[in-house]
Design a protein that fits this description.
Length: 242
C-alpha cells in the first residue's frame, strides 16, 4: 500500500517541474525562498527591459473613459448652442440647458404662505428656473380631483392650467415648483412652451435673483366672487389672488 512518490524535478531555469503536467493535480507544496527570489528577479528584469527597437516611443496618458465622455458631451453641447443660436427656438435651447444642469433650489418655510421655493445660487434675468412637473389631466378629471382633495382636507391647490383642455396636477405627483408662492410683484413668470409636440410649463426669471431669495410669480387666477386673500406683502399688493 505504500509507494514512493516521484521526486520533483527542477527545470534548467530553477523552477519546479510538474510531473503530472498540472500544478493543481499535485496538491500543495512549499516553494523555497531562493526559487521565489529568482522568479521575482527574472520578472523585474523582464519588465525593466527596454524595447528591442532603438526608436523612443512615448504613449500619452489616456483620460478615464467616463471623464472623456463627459467632456465630449459638454463640448458637443457648446458647439450645438453656438451653431444653432438665432436659427432655432431659444426656449428649446434653454429647456435643454435646464435639463442638462438644473438650478440649485430649496424649499423651506416662507413668510408669504406655508412653504416656499428659494434660490441657492444667483439666477440671471430671463433664465429658465424650473419646470412645473405633474400629471397631465383633462378638465373633467380636474373637477373630480378638486372635490376629492377638498374632502381629504388638502387646502392648497397645485393645479396649473396649460390650455383649455389640459391641466397639470402636481398635488401628489410633482416637483419643487409646486411650492412657489404667489406675489403681486413677482421676480418670475410662467410660460407655456412646446417640446417635441408636448406643452410644458416653465418658470422664467423676470430679473436677477439673489441667493436665498424666494421664487415667486403671479398666479393670475380668474376673477371670482369668493376672494382668496393675498399675503405677499408687496407695495402694490392687490389684496386678493383672484
Amino acid at each position: 500500500t505504500s509507494f514512493s512518490t516521484p521526486k520533483k524535478k527542477k527545470r534548467d531555469d530553477g523552477m519546479r517541474e510538474h510531473v503530472t503536467g498540472c500544478a493543481r493535480s499535485e496538491g500543495y507544496y512549499k516553494i523555497d525562498k531562493k526559487d521565489k527570489l529568482k522568479y521575482l528577479n527574472n520578472s523585474r528584469a523582464f519588465a525593466e527591459e527596454p524595447p528591442a527597437d532603438t526608436q523612443v516611443r512615448t504613449i500619452p496618458a489616456q483620460p478615464h473613459a467616463s471623464t472623456r465622455a463627459g467632456s465630449e458631451r459638454r463640448s458637443e453641447q457648446r458647439r450645438l448652442l453656438s451653431s444653432f443660436t438665432g436659427s432655432c427656438d431659444s426656449d428649446l435651447l434653454k429647456f435643454n440647458q435646464l435639463k442638462f444642469r438644473k438650478k440649485k433650489l430649496k424649499f423651506c418655510k416662507s413668510h408669504i404662505h406655508d412653504w416656499g421655493l428659494f434660490a441657492m445660487e444667483p439666477i440671471a434675468a430671463d433664465e429658465m428656473v424650473i419646470e412645473y412637473v405633474g400629471q397631465n389631466i383633462r378638465q373633467v378629471i380636474a373637477d373630480m380631483r378638486e372635490k376629492r382633495y377638498e374632502d381629504e382636507g388638502i387646502g392648497s391647490s397645485y393645479m396649473f392650467r396649460v390650455d383649455h383642455d389640459t391641466i397639470i396636477d402636481a398635488t401628489k405627483c410633482g416637483n419643487f415648483a409646486r411650492f412657489i408662492n404667489h406675489s403681486c410683484n413677482p421676480n418670475c413668470y410662467a410660460k407655456v412652451i412646446t417640446v417635441e409636440s408636448q406643452k410644458k410649463i416653465v418658470i422664467y426669471s423676470k430679473q436677477h435673483i439673489n441667493v436665498n431669495e424666494e421664487i415667486t410669480y403671479d398666479y393670475k387666477f380668474p376673477i371670482e366672487d369668493v376672494k382668496i386673500p393675498c399675503l405677499c406683502g408687496s407695495e402694490n399688493c392687490r389684496g386678493t389672488l383672484n
